[in-house]
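Raw record, unedited: E3 UFM1-protein ligase 1
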Amino acid sequence: MAAAWEEIRRLAADFQRAQFAEVAHRLSERNCIEIVTKLIAEKQLEVVHTLDGKEYVTPAQISKEIRDELHVSGGKCGICFLPLVINVDLLHIENRANDIVKSEKSIQLVLGQLINESYLDQLAEEINDKLQETGQVTISELCKAYDLPGDFLIQALSRRLGRIIHGQLDQENRGVIFTEAFVSRHRARIRGLFTAITRPTPVSNLITRYGFQEHLLYSVLEELVNTGRLKGTVVGGRQDKAVFVPDIYARTQNNWVDSFFKQNGYLEFDALYRLGIPDPAGYIKKRYKSTQLLFLRAACVGQEIVDQVEASVEEAVSSGNWIDVATLLPSSLSVEDVGILLQQVMRSLNKNSSGLVFSDTIVVSEKFLSSCADLFSDMMQQKAEKEMKNNPVNLITEEDLKQISGLENSYANKKDKKDERRKKATEGSGSVRGGGGGNAREIKIKKTKKKGRKDADSDEESQATSTGLKRQEFPFMSQEEIEDVLKTHMQDCPEELITELAEHLIRPLTKTYQEVVRSVFTSSTSSSGASRRQTMKDLQEEFSNLYNNIRLFEKGTKHFTDEAQTNLAKHLLKTVCTDITNLIFNFLASDSMMTTENYSTITSEVRAKILGKLPEDTKDPLTKLHTSLNGKSVEDFLSCLDSAVDICGIMVKKGDKKKERQVLFQHRQALIEQLKVTEDPALVLHLTSVLLFQFSTHCMLHAPGRSVPQIIHFLSGKIPEDQHSLLVKYQGLVVKQLISQTKKTEQGDDDTTDNLEEEEGADTIRKELQEITTSIKDLVLRPRTSSVTEE
């Protein structure tokens, strides 16, 4: 013993000498770092820097420290916490952890955690203790408690069932582990509970009330029912609406259903719901497999009811009547179900049977619809004739133009020989200047729309089709008016049927009405042709008079300055020029049955409609004529008028000097006669000024009232000074009277002092006008001594 201690003391002394001995060759810290760096660069040494950079650690050391930490942690260690313990970057730890998992099967990496088999065994023991205590555990609870995924737990625990964990995994629901004692206890509870049930009971209510495990209950219940231990059936499968129906209740239920169906021929789903049948449609299909049934939204009906409805519908269609099938069916059936049944019946009927469904439940035959449409035949004829008289412009259509043109073509071929000779004589007279008859000129037109019409009909029809011309539609009756007529003749029809019949008939009636309208126009075409031939002579005479008047009126406007001349030209365009334009348009409209008795009532809109019915070769010059009415130049209008008459076939005779003198005399006499009978100061001034202008210039003047001051100013120097002064004075009084009347109209009948003074002033003006009016008229009516003579 003493020798041993002596040896120990000797070795300790040697060790102490070695420690304090000085080394002859030592490497500095910098040299060590360079050597290690060189070895790492040449890959002869594999080390890892620590987080503080003061040490080198080999991968093997990292692996060793990871295993040590895993062992210390009890078999479960999170990788994210290891950098703080090992003092190495997380990347190196993850790499070494993956190498450890690959090399050792007992260690697994799950959601960033290293887990070994010892931890899983310990986990299984804890779970087994809990299982034996509660009878069942769920995987979802274990996932929350141990922070592990469910699939991993199921896989790990399945390998330990029967070895560490004394229980079994539910095969239907693999998220539950239970013991045999738990299953036996629940089987006994389920058997006792369902044996005591005497009426249909929802299974979900029992699960909630008694705390059964859902999948376990369905498995045990199915087993008990299949083995015959429980007398009953589960209706609805493994769903929330599953219901357990005891056999005793099912027998009573089936008897009631069979009895009701036998007596009534239908079954309501709501009634079966009230009996406790959660899936009525499925129950009926299963109960009546061999019976032919028609399933609706809320009920099903037997074949007897379907046959009854089918026979009634077929009878109504064949007899030309209507029938409401809702009256044949049980009142408990909804309108939607009746509609579905009726659609099925209509499909099964003969395809040749003609009938339509209205209001979802009413079948109406085509014969009945035709009889309803016949009620409006007389009304259509009367309305068409009335519309033709009241507003023929709006009623003409493209098809009517074609038919009318065809009739006119036939009429043109039947002209008498006298017309043919006159036509040849006109054509043989040469140019416009070379015609016989003095200064008359006759303009011959080419009515291209009548020429070769029969040969071009097919081409025009195809062109109208290709261009997609849309026919104008003439309204016949509104839906409300049709309903009123139907109510008068069919008082036994329900209100909703009347409404839908009117809605159905409005389009066919409107379409038929179009044909009636065209028929009325076509039938009146032949008589209108003869009428137009009789009035052609009067038309040309009236046109010539208007044409010559415009020429003479235009000559009178030339005596005024630009502004006054423009105002006079505009007035002439709006009056006489518009009349002659309307005369031309009315003549052309007669070719299309659109003529009116008084052409002066034709408006700009009517002219535009007439233009839309004319062929292209006629439309262009007439459009220019129509547009020129809105201009400021009478010369431009006359130019357009000359182009238009070339198209219209109207013979225009220009007046000669003798004719012009006659027109001037007649115009003057007409104004004088009007002046004699009028007492209106404004009109007296207007007529006197125009007549004095004609006396002074030998020119007619067509002027509005607002141009009277310009006319009086023009007469200065053209008439004696005393006459002009009197005229100016009379003009001033007329203006004052008009102003006074305007103020009185604006102020009303208030008896104020100002109004009384104004009334006195108006009386004074009226008296002065009455005194001077006779003198003003005498300027024109008295025998003239002026050197200006009238021819």
